[in-house]
Specification:
The complex is a heterotrimer of chains A (273), B (375) and C (562). With 273 residues, chain A is an all-alpha fold. Chain A has a single domain, classed as MetI-like (MetI-like fold). Chain A has helices spanning 2-27, 58-94, 96-111, 114-124, 129-156, 159-166, 171-182, 184-208, 219-231, 236-263. In chain A, helix 1 crosses helix 2 (58-94), helix 2 (58-94) packs across helix 8 and helix 4 packs across helix 5. The two termini of chain A are 17 Å apart. Chain B is globular, with a radius of gyration of 25 Å. Chains in contact: A-B, A-C, B-C. The interface between A and B is large, with 50 and 53 residues.
Chain lengths: 273, 375, 562
């Protein structure tokens, strides 16, 4: 059942990625070339999704937008995961007061509205891609840390850890060489599950004007453009990017959840009797 | 952040305990009973209740102690980051005149406004003013911060309160129905819609709502509190708030509904329900009297945990609908890096969210004695 | 009732379970009920009863306008109303409208100012019998105090740099004031449009941006400010105005920063008028009861090409870019037809001072020829290279403006067609400042369009190449052309109109042979207003600022009903 979900979600995702990668290549359209005389044309045979405010074909522009959004999201997810893994391993492994401190910190970070922190960080360091990536990563690493921490806690009791210690490995070696790799599957899943959040955040920040610059295509900037184009009569500038945003977010989320179900062995309590 | 465990001690996957390797559920009422000698009477209801209250108070105290340092760290971090930010607050202050002002004059203005102090001096000054009752002056609104808050807070409360209320009602109704008949058509449809809506950022929903209802159909106004400049009237406000409230509610319904559904499905599998059904009690009564009440505690817990989502939703809805609330002011003050207002709003929101979540946990703890108060 | 029922249920369930439960209220269903009740209470409490005031019979003499620009900051010393458009103040002179160049007529001056032979001393006679809105009489000491405050370094006035020709202003009699200048300056009358404030208001030196005048203006103008909040300002007619009380009795200004929101409110009929970007304004063409007005302006958009930039400073590149830019298409498509091509900072409306031959044709082929001849050879990726330097320029623009964004994109596209790569960067002004002399910037100008000197001197004179002279944006290209400099000085000092006109024509001729910027367009400012049977003010040449203080409402105190 979970495998079926994974296959479906995975295929949708594959289609999206192909769209994002192939269409700009095949169309051979340079993003920098504008044709304002063709601005805001309705969808037609020539322009499948219509044109945007600068006369660029929306079908191609959305593909570029997906690429930018996903790349930024990937960066954020990776950074968040790295932070989360480091923190989670440290907390799970050491236990005691560092662990409690870490848990309190994660609780605190969780308590703060993510977007708010994101806005504040990006507002202060405007126009910087690093700021965008950091603002998303710094507010999302907690989920990863928690997952990794509980993994470590359960792994700690396993015989192979004892065996390693008996063989003379130092605590650090045990942590780095044995525990961290064991958390890899969960970490991978965490990256995938973070992607929709990161895309959501980036598009919101770009929409508010704090994210990527308006001439760069990303799902967020396209939607921000849609805000003006609506009044000028262009429903397609809103509908298509929004639909793509939903599809991408859902596909990635489903793929991640299905992946998790496949990778994680079922708990006894989940077994249906 | 209390962990909610049901009677069987099943913990949802990957949820943290408050310490390593938590054991099965313990009721807080038991220790008093266990400590009595065999010959004593059973503990009175009053004693147990008092014991429970003490535990809850303990939780409140611990949590408040936690909130203080977090708030302090966040506020200090905010001021430090602002100082190192390359953004020049004079841009917001001078507006279009920024370009024509000479560097020498900008230096004079900076000095007069105290913009060139080290960050801890600004922070300390702000703290002192804060505890002295002076909230400072908002550069972006050209008003004292206290006035900005006083004028805008009621509108945010109105929007958020109405939105949350509507979302809760819808989530409860649909969630219980979906959960009780889980796997059925209604359940699948509702869950699917929720999943889709959850993927949409609130600003997309707002834009779509404006596009359809305000621009195309023209049924409802697209922005603001009242028609062009006139003082708000009860009727006008209701008309203007319909769209933002509905959009905010829709953006919050998915996770609320799924949480309700989840806990209803869990309760459905409990022994006491099987017992009730086997005794021949009709499904409707089983639902209303057995399943719903035990599902409520986790639901309130979720509301507390997800309060930040409501805040985020409010920020975006207020921004798109030009609703003159406090959440929208966050965006404005962030744009202009108006530290006086931004600091107060950020920290205020943080405190409100944490206190709100604490309140939710208190309610849950009082409602459900199985819940631990370690949180 | 539902509440008590559920409470009862919780207790009964608990009882059946065998647990002894604390008698807790079922908070879940109670919360929404309380919230709903609270909501209704809030609505009832926070909204005043009754309908909006002022509507009804008196509604005819009222206007509600929505502005995209912030309210407040009403201090002339800080530069507010420098073109005389402030409704609460009067200047010594004011503009007369009409097609073409506006003229000047005396306002607080009894007659137009006169100058001595070399335009270094100007004398003004004050109009008697005028009072400020706080009751005090207007006199020459107020004129002196206003200008002294603007020039005072302690005010840190944003307008100071445009008044630096004034050495001192002196009272020379009961009703005369003398302006003594540091150098000859023919168009001084353009500096007399700014509003006059009472001497008492500027008695203590201090930051102009912090003065109480910003939120409580005291002036002699046709309107007085009665209410100010961040999103609404209410002005009421001054019944004792020296030029006759205005017929429009109440003016409400709303601050609505978002273009789309203003347009939506215009559509719904909530407001009587607003300024909108040209494409949005065009959607109101032909709508019943709405008029779209386009006011000509000398408000130009263009980009600077800093001399210090190895690519942008190259004369061949500068000429090629000017030929490659398709200005007409920008006007037709980006501005919806509301604009004029600009080759130099001088618009056609300057009449005799305008040189009709000083234009750049749209000729990409010629541009490519020029580049190739100068050694810029096309590389493999289509971008030209010369001596290892790629033809690549960074163009910075201020992100908040959609028109600037679109013009920047259109220009980048045109440049790409001739093999020059233009990389766009959307930044806020403070990020642009430090790089203004090394990278291209999309600029706007035309703050003071009423004389060719104020329109162009700041942009073209090499005086500003020195770093501490003037503001950072003065001569952002670091343009140096001796012929242009000489002609600008003649235009500035000569009192002879024909001589001035000839000088400015010479500037334009010299400029198009050696351009330092790419001037793109002059914007027409677009406004939408509801038809309400008023005889409105005619057209006027507008400066760079274009909120609702301009547009059809620039002299709304003179509107009459048929």
């Amino acid at each position: 059942m979970a495998r079926r979900h994974l296959v479906v979600a995975g295929s949708v995702l594959a289609v999206v990625v192909l769209y994002a990668v192939l269409v700009p290549l095949l169309a051979g359209v340079d993003d920098r070339v504008t044709d304002f005389a063709q601005a805001r044309q309705a969808p037609s045979a020539e322009h499948l999704f219509g044109t945007d405010s600068a006369g660029r074909d929306l079908f191609v522009r959305i593909a570029s937008g997906i690429r930018t959004s996903l790349l930024v999201a990937l960066l954020c997810a990776l950074l968040a995961t790295v932070i989360g893994v480091v923190v989670g391993v440290a907390a799970g492994f050491w236990g005691g007061w560092p662990d409690r401190l870490v848990m309190r910190t994660t609780d605190a970070v969780n308590a703060l509205p993510h977007l708010l922190l994101g806005i504040v960080i990006v507002a202060m360091f405007r126009g910087s891609l690093l700021a965008i990536v950091l603002s998303i990563a710094l507010t999302h690493w907690t989920q990863v840390a928690r997952i990794v921490r509980s993994e470590i806690l359960s792994l700690r009791q396993r015989p192979f850890v004892d065996a390693a210690v008996l063989a003379g490995a130092s605590r650090r070696q045990v942590a780095v060489r044995h525990l961290v790799p064991a958390t890899a599957p969960q970490a991978l899943i965490a990256v995938v599950l973070l992607l929709p959040h990161a895309v959501w955040h980036e598009s919101t920040l770009s929409f508010l004007g704090f994210g990527l610059p308006p001439h760069e295509p990303s799902l967020g900037t396209l939607l921000e453009e849609a805000r003006s184009s609506l009044l000028l009569g262009g429903w397609w500038t809103l509908v298509f990017p929004a639909a793509v945003l939903v599809v991408v977010t859902l596909a990635v989320a489903f793929a991640g959840q299905a992946l998790r179900k496949v990778v994680t062995p079922p708990q006894p309590s989940e077994l249906r009797l | 952040m209390t962990t909610v465990r049901d009677g069987r001690g099943k913990r949802p996957a990957a949820e943290p305990g408050t310490g390593p390797a938590d054991g099965p559920a313990r009721t807080s009422a038991r220790p008093d009973a266990a400590s009595r000698t065999a010959g004593d009477d059973a503990p009175s209801v009053r004693d147990l209740r008092r014991g429970r209250h003490r535990d809850v108070w303990g939780m409140v105290r611990r949590r408040l102690l936690f909130i203080v340092p977090v708030t302090g760290l966040v506020s200090a971090g905010l001021f430090a980051a602002a100082k190192y930010s390359p953004f020049d607050p004079l841009v917001g202050y001078l507006g279009t005149r920024y370009m024509t002002t000479t560097e020498a004059d900008k230096a004079i203005i900076s000095e007069q406004l105290g913009l060139d102090q080290p960050w801890y001096a600004t922070y300390w000054g702000w703290l002192q003013d804060l505890f002295g009752g002076d909230l400072g002056r908002s550069r972006s609104f050209s008003q004292p911060v206290a006035q900005v808050i006083a004028e805008r807070l009621p509108w945010t409360l109105l929007l958020a309160g109405a939105g949350l209320a509507l979302a809760v009602v819808v989530a409860l109704l649909l969630g219980i129905t979906a959960g009780v008949r889980s796997g059925g058509l209604v359940d699948r449809a509702v869950t699917a819609v929720c999943v889709v809506v959850q993927g949409l950022p609130p600003f997309v929903l707002s834009l779509a709502a404006i596009a359809v209802f305000a621009l195309t159909l023209g049924w409802l106004p697209a922005a603001g509190l009242s028609d062009g400049g006139s003082d708000p009237t009860a009727g006008g406000v209701l008309r203007h708030m319909l769209l933002p409230v509905v959009v905010l509610a829709i953006s919050q319904v998915p996770w609320l509904l799924l949480a309700v559904r989840e806990s209803v499905v869990t309760s459905k599998g409990e022994d006491f329900v099987a017992g009730a059904v086997s005794r021949g009690i009709p499904t409707g009564i089983v639902t209303r009297r057995h399943i719903v009440p035990t599902s409520l505690a986790p639901f309130v817990n979720i509301v507390g945990v997800r309060l930040p989502e409501l805040v985020v939703g409010a920020v975006l809805v207020e921004e798109v609908f030009s609703w003159p609330g406090v959440a929208g002011a966050i965006v404005t003050s962030a744009r202009d890096l108006d530290m006086a207002l931004l600091a107060f709003l950020t920290i205020g929101t943080t405190v409100v969210v944490m206190v709100g979540s604490l309140l939710a946990d208190v309610v849950v703890a009082l409602m459900d004695p199985r819940v631990s108060t370690d949180g | 009732m539902a509440v008590t029922r559920i409470t009862h249920l919780v207790r009964s369930v608990a009882h059946r379970e065998g647990n002894i439960v604390v008698r807790a209220r079922a908070a879940g269903p109670v919360l929404p009920t309380i919230a709903l009740g609270g909501v209704l209470a809030l609505v009832a409490c926070t909204t005043p009863g009754g309908s909006a005031d002022g509507e009804g019979a008196a509604g005819d003499a009222e206007l509600v306008l929505a502005d995209g620009y912030e309210l407040g900051g009403y201090n002339p010393v800080a530069g507010f109303g420098a073109a005389g458009e402030a409704k609460m103040y009067d200047g010594l002179v004011r503009l007369t409208g009409g097609e073409g160049m506006p003229g000047f007529e005396p306002a607080l001056a009894a007659e137009l100012p006169t100058a001595n032979d070399d335009a270094t001393v100007w004398t003004v006679t004050i109009r008697p019998g005028v009072t400020f809105s706080d009751g005090t009489t207007f006199g020459p000491e107020d004129v002196v105090a206003t200008y002294e405050a603007i020039l005072d370094p302690a005010s840190a006035s944003e307008a100071r740099s445009s008044f630096d020709m004034i050495d001192e202003v002196v009272e020379t009699g009961d009703d005369t004031v003398e302006f003594r200048l540091a150098y000859p300056y023919a168009p001084l009358v353009t500096k007399m449009l700014i509003g006059i404030v009472p001497a008492e208001a500027v008695a203590t030196p201090g930051l102009a941006a912090e003065s109480t005048l910003n939120s409580e203006p005291v002036g002699t103008g046709p309107y007085t400010l009665v209410d100010l909040s961040p999103d609404r300002a209410v002005l009421e007619a001054n019944e004792d105005y020296w030029d006759g009380a205005p017929e429009i009795k109440k003016l409400t200004l709303l601050y609505v920063p978002d273009d789309n929101t203003r347009a939506q409110r215009m559509v719904s009929g909530e407001i009587d008028g607003t300024n909108l970007p040209p494409l949005l304004a065009n959607t109101f063409e032909g709508k019943d009861g709405m008029t779209v007005t386009a006011q000509t302006s000398a408000d130009w958009r263009g980009l600077s090409l800093p001399t210090n930039n190895p690519v942008a400073g190259d004369p061949a590149v500068r000429m090629a870019l000017n030929l490659a830019a398709d200005r007409q298409s920008m006007i037709d498509d980006v501005l919806g037809g509301h604009g004029r091509v600009a080759a130099t900072p001088y618009p056609e409306v300057y009449g005799e001072a305008y040189e009709p031959d000083a234009v750049f044709e749209h000729d990409p082929a010629r541009a490519e020829e020029i580049l190739t001849d100068a050694g810029w050879v096309e590389g493999a990726d289509g971008i030209r290279v010369k001596d290892g330097q790629r033809a690549q320029i960074a163009l910075m623009y201020n992100s908040v403006d959609t028109v600037r964004r679109d013009l920047a994109q259109a220009f980048a596209s045109d440049a790409l067609a001739v093999g020059v790569e233009v990389d766009l960067e959307a930044l806020s002004w403070d990020r642009i400042d430090p790089r203004i002399n090394t990278d291209a910037t999309l600029l706007g100008g035309g703050d003071e369009p009423f004389d060719p000197d104020t329109q162009s001197y700041d942009a073209l004179s090499s005086v500003f190449v020195q770093p501490d002279v003037g503001s950072v944006y003065a001569n952002a290209s670091d343009y140096q052309n001796a012929t242009v400099d000489a002609a600008l000085e003649v235009g500035r000092r000569s009192l002879d109109q024909a001589e001035r006109d000839a000088a400015y024509r010479e500037v334009q001729d010299a400029y198009v042979d050696d351009p330092g910027y790419v001037y793109l367009v002059f914007l027409d400012h677009t406004y939408v207003s509801k038809d309400a049977g008023w005889n409105m003010s005619g057209p006027v040449l507008e400066p760079h600022a274009h909120g609702v203080t301009w547009g059809p409402w620039w002299s709304l105190q003179s509107w009459t009903r048929d």
